[in-house]
Design goal:
Chain lengths: ~50, ~170
């Protein structure tokens, strides 16, 4: 099986795909982190009552 | 095997497994649409393929939470639970987040977790390092991989298609 692949800096299509996957990961991370922070705040609020 | 209890939430974007440790909250997210548009032409890789992402948010300042072996154990247990629920013909695809430049560390840690878990008996993990050439001496690495159950009747085809996908990325400009 393949272990390593080299992508040329002129390979615009592949670079766009990598950038798109990173962008989607970032969006998902931000959405989930926001939700987790809200849940943690809610838990802390309940605990302090 | 010490681990944390977790909950499962059917989110609009996928399946969210959540657990909380004394220092952080962790979400293991399975997204059935994460890579779909790039895998349409692959017969086996386009079916039952889910994107795997792991996120954590610390709730107290502690840089040592990653040393908590129960986090690894829980994530391994979640992956096992996922395959039990979705079936052995499911495949998990992942790529290591490179936003902060720590994708190499993530790749190594995930490999260490896999090697030190019981997953190696029933599952196989394969990862490819993509090196993006650069004008400077510092080329950037990206890591893509998949995890599948060895009893998947199409495991060989999945492996071949994953390699083909990687090769096709390298030759998209040709």
């Amino acid at each position: 099986m393949l272990k390593k692949v080299v992508i040329s800096k002129s390979n615009k299509k592949a670079l766009e795909i990598l950038a798109d996957l990173d962008r989607k990961k970032k969006e998902l991370r931000e959405k989930i982190e926001k939700k987790m922070i809200e849940q943690n705040a809610s838990i802390s609020k309940r605990a302090s009552k | 095997m010490g681990k944390y209890s977790f909950t499962v939430e059917d989110d609009v974007d996928g399946l969210s497994y959540n657990f909380r440790t004394p220092v952080c909250s962790v979400v293991v997210f399975f997204n059935p649409h994460a890579y779909g548009e790039y895998l349409e032409k692959y017969t086996f890789l386009s079916k039952n393929t889910w994107g795997l992402s792991i996120f954590s948010v610390p709730h107290i300042c502690d840089n040592h939470y990653s040393a908590d072996v129960r986090i690894r154990n829980t994530i391994i247990s979640i992956i096992e639970d996922f395959f039990e629920g979705q079936g052995s013909d499911s495949v998990l695809l992942y790529h290591c987040d490179s936003a902060d430049g720590k994708q190499g560390k993530r790749s190594k840690k995930f490999e260490r977790w896999y090697q030190n878990s019981g997953l190696t008996d029933t599952m196989e993990k394969h990862e490819i390092e993509f090196t993006v050439e650069s004008d400077s001496d510092e080329s950037q690495q990206n890591y893509f991989g998949f995890i599948g159950v060895k009893s998947n009747p199409h495991f060989t085809e999945v492996k071949n298609e994953f390699d083909e996908f990687a090769r096709s990325l390298a030759f998209l400009d040709k």
